[in-house]
Amino acid sequence: MSGEGRTPCGECGAANRARALYCLACGAKLRRPPPPVTETRVDARRLRGWMACFDFDQTGETFLLREGQNVLGAEPREATVLLAASRGQVVARHGAIRLEADGGAWASPLDGAMTLNGAAVPSAGSALHDGDQLRVGAYTLIVKLLP
Ligand SMILES: [Zn+2]
Fold first, then answer.
1. 99-129 pLDDT, tens digit each
2. What's the 95 CA to ligand 1 centre distance in angstroms?
3. Distance 24 CA to ligand 1 centre (A)
4. In whole angstroms, what is the distance from residue 33 CA to residue 100 CA?
5. What is the pLDDT of residue 39?
6. Which has the closest alpha carbon to 1: 126, 123, 118, 142?
7. How far apart are CA 2 and CA 125, in angstroms?
8. Residue 69: pLDDT over 50
9. Which domains does the chain carry?
10. Full strand arrangement of the beta sheet holding 105-109
């Protein structure tokens, strides 16, 4: 897949695979970007799933999804799923995931574009299913929904 994140070598500047540990050009150990700043907040809504991301931390990062509206974005006061703008193309209120009490799940763009399993998510939204792959800016998020 093109468009995946690249890890530049701090020694020689060569672009390496996003998950590479050592530079293919010079062999130097590659540094990873720091993890995103996350803010502890109390969200009392029922946990309905989560998203996993392996783009920036090969051990994986998780983002919790709760019943109702989940706003994905880079602005801590607006987003319940906080992504790092510095990682590229994530805007303050980028998109939303709505998890209905009856089990329905929907992804829809807000001020940014998203793709779901490789297809652009229309403004009307797309149904979301367990195992879907959602792309938000430079993030590839694997969606896990609880039954
Ligand atoms: Zn290098």
1. 999 889 999 999 999 999 999 999 999 999 9
2. 36
3. 7
4. 35
5. 59
6. 118
7. 25
8. yes
9. 1-31 (no CATH), 47-145 (2.60.200.20)
10. 81-82, 68-73, 95-99, 105-109, 126-127
Residue 85: strand, helix, or coil: helix
Residue with tokens 């809504």: 45
Residue 29, φ and ψ in degrees, nearest 5: -70, 135
- CA of 25 from ligand 1 middle (Å) equals 5
**Numbers of helices and strands, H then E, in the chain:** 0, 13
Tell how far the Cα of 32 is from the centroid of ligand 1, in angstroms. Answer: 14
Residue 93 CA: distances (Å) to CA of 9, 75, 139: 31, 7, 15
Mean pLDDT estimate for the chain: 89
CA distance 143 to 73: 16
User: Percentage of residues in the chain with pLDDT exceeding 70?
Assistant: 90
Contact 99, 105 (CB under 8 A): yes
